[in-house]
Every structure is written in structure tokens, then in C-alpha cells.
Amino acid sequence: MEITKEYLEEQIKIASEGKDKALADANAYAGAIQAFQMMLKRLEEKPAESGEVIGLRQPD
Questions:
Q1: Would you say residue 6 lies in a domain?
Q2: I want to staple 48 with a disulfide (CB 3.0 to 4.6 A). Which of 5, 39, 52, 53 is the partner?
């Protein structure tokens, strides 16, 4: 198989698309981790009552 400029350009394009998806996935996981950490901190500061829904918003 001959490695051509076109082949290499296509491989770079495919790898770049994979990198973009991996970065998006990593950002989504980081956001989820941060949200869970915030909820955990809130629970540590004020334990939930039985059946209480835990959220990130502070009561008004």
C-alpha cells in the first residue's frame, strides 16, 4: 500500500474528529463530576430529610 498525501490528510481528519469527540466526552464527565461534588458538599453542610430532593440550587 502506498501512503499518499491524500491518505495522510484523511487519517489526520479522522484522528482530529476523534480528538474533538474525546474532548467533548471528557468535558461532559468533568461537568458531571463537578455537579456530584457540589451535591455532596451540600449534603455534608445540611443533611437531607427523608425523601428530600437534592439539587444544586439554593432555596430562595
A1: no
A2: 52
Q: What is the pLDDT along the chain (60 residues), one digit of tens a residue?
A: 789 999 999 999 999 999 999 999 999 999 999 999 998 888 888 877 766 776 666 555
Q: Is the pTM of this model over 0.90?
A: no
As for how many domains the chain has, the answer is 1
Q: Which domain holds residue 29?
A: 20-45
10-34 in b/e form (b: 16+ CB < 10 A) is eeeeeeeeeeeeeeeeeeeeeeeee
Residue that the C-alpha cell 461534588 belongs to = 37
